[in-house]
Amino acid sequence: MESIEEIIEKALSQGRKWLLEPEAKEICRQFQIPVPDFGVATSKKEAVDLANKIGYPVVLKIISPQIIHKSDVGGVVIGLKNDTEVKKAYDRIIEKVRVKMPNVKVEGVLVEKMYPSDVEVIVGMVKDPQFGPAIMFGLGGIFVEILKDVSFRIVPVSEEDAREMIQEIKAYPILAGARGRAQKDINAIMKIILKVSELVSRYERINQLDLNPIFVYEKGKGAIAVDARIILEEDSTRE
Fold first, then answer.
1. Helices (DSSP H) in the chain: which residue ranges?
2. Within the chain, what is the greatest distance between any pair of CA atoms?
3. Is residue 105 in a domain?
4. Residue 239 lies in a domain
5. Do 107 and 160 share a domain, yes or no?
6. 99, HSE (Cβ side, Cα atoms, 13 Å)
7. What is the domain extent for residue 186?
8. Could you read off the pLDDT of 58-101 as tens digits, one per residue?
9. Do 86 and 63 lie in a common domain?
10. Model confidence over 176-219: pLDDT tens digits?
11. With the C-alpha atoms ordered 69, 212, 150, 182, is the resulting torsion angle positive or negative?
């Protein structure tokens, strides 16, 4: 298992700013940010073995440094329930990507535990030229772009800051359990916000980070980041 430092150094040495999804998720995992169990397969047999180890249902996603939006090229298949479906999905993903992007470099296929969807939120980080890293929170999925209902805090973020960030968004009643709905696990969201703040404070090479969507379950049942993206700063010392 590569350390966070090794993952970042490897990407920079290859001239990459975008971390591959398994790299971003491994950083999250090492930093105790909850992500689904996952592994990388380079063959159908490896994909099936991983799926059985992780437990069905699973999701398959293409891994390539040249593919940012995997769904656009048919590089994602969800809800796979058995070995036969995994084998077919593996072939289908590789075939679709080869047709749409014949010259793309494929590193493998991510095999990942599939979790039931629930309320989606986003925790992200951007670097402000004046103030430095700022943590963002809001409703996730497509809503972050449509509603722009988000809150920000400059790093480092305290527990009080994290709670205020959650309470500030207009959609907070959805999380708090409006109109008799079950309250969501706000403490789990706070822990993720605090962990992201700590991560980007410690690793200054991280220029942007997005955990979107994060599925948030009922109070006491946690939250999990089902997608993770990390962009690194360019290393001016490299030629």
1. 4-13, 21-30, 44-54, 83-100, 143-147, 159-168, 172-176, 186-202
2. 59
3. yes
4. no
5. no
6. 10
7. 119-232
8. 999 999 999 988 988 899 999 999 999 999 999 999 999 999 99
9. yes
10. 998 888 999 999 999 999 999 999 999 999 999 999 999 999 99
11. positive
